[in-house]
Write a structure and sequence with these properties.
The protein is built from two helices and 24 strands. By secondary structure, it is mainly β. It has two domains: about 70 residues, Rossmann fold (3-Layer(aba) Sandwich); about 110 residues, 3 Solenoid (UDP N-Acetylglucosamine Acyltransferase, domain 1), CATH 2.160.10. The longest helix has 12 residues.
């Protein structure tokens, strides 16, 4: 497996892969000043490398890199300490970190992150290019739209729908639906502003 993005997030994905006995064959980064990470040399072109996981936490940046890579194959990383129901599904390019829990019929889209210790309950749907940050709790039947970031320690009660390209601040308690393109935070979570999103 090759990781595109040589940062702290790559270290965590590398650990997840190694926990399953998989080897990281190389690291790639656009920044020519980044020469090594965690004792591994960093390449500056992904040409001919496959499979790849884009190891960048930011949702919009991850999407841009995936689109720039074109027709490569993408892997997934699931830490051995994560608990996944047999009926849970994880899309290509996505990563499930240590201690995360995915309950029955959870759907995780492509190139998404379910980070350390996050709990995702039954029938939740997580779109493409989403980041569920550490120690979030998504109760049953929650949906999170494409490109949305749910901040660390956030709780989303059952049945809530969070739209596309939202940013939910850390430690929020989400009790009501959040429409597309909103910045929202607090306990209870309130919409603070709408923002434009550039792909």
């Amino acid at each position: 497996m090759y990781l595109y993005g040589a940062s702290g997030h790559a270290k965590v994905i590398k650990d997840a892969l190694e926990s399953q006995g998989l080897q990281v064959l190389g690291l790639v980064d656009d920044n020519p000043l980044v020469e090594s990470l965690d004792g591994m040399p960093v390449l500056h072109s992904a040409e001919g490398l496959s499979p790849v996981i884009v190891s960048v936490g930011d949702c919009a940046t991850r999407r841009k890199i995936v689109e720039s890579l074109g027709a490569v194959s993408f892997g997934t990383a699931i830490h051995r300490s994560a608990i996944l129901s047999p009926s849970a599904m994880v899309g290509e390019g996505s990563v499930i970190m240590a201690g995360a829990i995915l309950q029955p019929y959870v759907r995780v889209g492509r190139h998404s992150i379910v980070n350390t210790g996050a709990s995702v309950d039954h029938d939740c749907v997580i779109g493409d290019f989403v980041h569920i940050a550490p120690h979030c709790t998504l109760c049953g039947n929650v949906s999170v739209g494409e490109g949305t970031w749910v901040g660390a320690g956030t709780t989303v009660i059952q049945g809530v729908k969070i739209g596309r390209n939202c940013f939910i601040g850390a430690g929020s308690l989400v009790l009501k639906d959040i429409p597309d393109g909103c910045v929202a935070y607090g306990s209870p979570c309130r919409i603070k502003k709408e923002h434009s999103y550039e792909k």
